[in-house]
Write a structure and sequence with these properties.
Blueprint: H1 9-17, E1 23-24, H2 35-38, H3 42-50, H4 62-69, E2 80-83, H5 85-97, E3 103-108, H6 113-120, E4 124-131, E5 137-138, H7 140-146, E6 151-157, H8 169-182, E7 185-189, E8 213-218, E9 231-234, H9 237-250, H10 256-265, H11 271-294, E10 300-302, E11 310-315, H12 321-332, E12 334-335, E13 337-338, E14 347-351, H13 356-372
Parallel strand pairs: 1-12, 3-4, 3-6, 6-7, 7-8
Antiparallel strand pairs: 2-9, 4-5, 8-9, 10-11, 11-14, 13-14
Helix pairs in contact: 4-10, 5-6, 5-9, 11-13, 12-13
Bound molecules: pyridoxal-5'-phosphate (PLP).
């Protein structure tokens, strides 16, 4: 049966506008790391210049998979498939595990990739909410109602995009119990782990809490390297093999340079430096956002994000978020993501991982468009 294709509205709008506008406050990561910042070791420069640009092993080089596995208790390189961003990890994993009419339960609000894939694959889609009034805590009762013995997979995003919420141990336990009761897969998109604002410790993974967990990670957010287009899935070895078999048809594998640079970035010598850089942008950026917003009383309300370089604000005018954001692009050359793109109108996702002057000028333009809609 053919069905209408559901486009990925957020990514399409981003790819069209993020490099066009003067002030791009749409990105959920911080200012990207340059190659020069990443590669400071002269031996590595020499290695990069003399390495043949061959295909690396298509599930990722052993060195890279070892460095990734070291981040997950009990994981070995056999648990890891390196992908073209977490985007491909999510896609190929769903392709591997789900058949049309299988039931999936997805957390909302959410980066809507899994939601859209579910629609396009003809899955039965149910949701459960993170609730703004409860500081974006998970509605565990709704989760328990949505998950039944027909549920094949539960998809969560922790820390959450767009709210920046980090699940408490109790919320994580509730998700694991729901998955366990149903015998369902638990797919955890954890690309913002390591980009915490309010706590020092990285957000713990779901990996190791249950035997049917798939944990997605990425170089894009916590490490500031989205242009490597390198992510991964951590899965039980037989499932990892099945995902790899599908990847052979999609991208074959990631590039040689991305494998080398990601392995370097995740090495014990370099990783702390990159994480500290990201946290520094997040700390300073959020303070600048907060100071600015306090001077524009009544424009927005928001729950302070616990992680990621984004704040999901509720704006206080009656207008559709898509309309406001389109006006912002066309009249003020500034781009923030409309709440519509996360399944929640009346909101905007604003990124703050920018230098102060750039952020403040972009925010002033956001204020101008909201004021004009009053
Ligand atoms: C929750 C979530 N998952 C996956 C992705 C895609 O990440 P990647 O750049 O690793 O493909 C994003 C990007 O914004 C995201 O927010």
């Amino acid at each position: 049966m053919s069905r209408d294709f559901v486009p990925f509205a957020l990514e399409r709008m981003m790819s069209v506008w993020e490099n066009q506008v003067d002030y791009n406050l749409s990105e959920s990561g911080v200012v990207p790391v340059t190659t020069e910042e990443l590669v400071q070791d002269p031996n590595l420069i020499e290695d990069l210049l003399t390495t043949g640009l061959n295909y690396p092993q298509s599930n990722g080089t052993l060195e890279l998979r070892e460095n990734i596995a070291a981040l997950y208790p009990g994981a070995t390189p056999d648990n890891i498939i390196v992908t073209t961003g977490a985007a491909q990890a999510n896609f190929t994993t769903l392709w591997t595990l789900m058949e049309p009419d299988d039931e999936i339960v997805v957390m909302l609000p959410n980066y809507m990739q899994i939601w859209g894939i579910a629609k396009n694959f003809g899955l039965k889609l149910k949701t459960f909410a993170l609730t703004e009034e409860l500081n974006w805590a998970a509605d565990v009762e709704e989760l328990d109602r949505s998950v039944t013995d027909r549920t094949k997979l539960i998809a969560v995003c922790n820390p959450n995009n767009p709210s920046g919420h980090i699940m408490t141990p109790e919320e994580m336990d509730a998700v694991v119990s729901a998955a366990d009761r149903a015998g369902a897969w638990l797919m955890a998109d954890e690309v913002y782990a390591g980009a915490e604002r309010v706590v020092e410790e990285p957000t713990p993974s779901f990996w190791g809490r249950y035997d049917k967990v798939l944990a997605m990670g990425s170089m894009s957010k916590a490490y500031g390297l989205p242009g490597l287009r390198l992510g991964w899935v951590v899965a039980p070895p037989t499932t990892a093999e099945q995902i790899w078999a599908r990847q052979d048809y999609v991208t074959i594998g990631n590039t040689m340079l991305a494998n080398i640079l990601a392995a370097h970035a995740l090495s014990p010598e370099v990783r702390p430096r990159l994480l500290a850089r990201t946290r520094d942008y997040i700390q300073r950026g959020y303070k600048n956002f907060e100071r600015w917003a306090q001077r524009h009383d009544g424009l927005f309300s928001w729950v302070p994000p616990q992680a990621a370089a984004i704040v999901f604000v509720r704006y206080h005018v009656e207008a559709s978020s898509t309309e406001l954001c389109e006006r912002l692009i066309h009249e003020h050359s500034t781009y923030v993501v409309p709440g519509d793109h996360f399944g929640l109108d009346g909101h905007m996702r604003i990124s703050f991982g920018h230098p102060e002057d750039y952020l403040l000028e972009g925010l002033d333009r956001v204020a101008a468009v909201i004021e004009s809609a009053r």
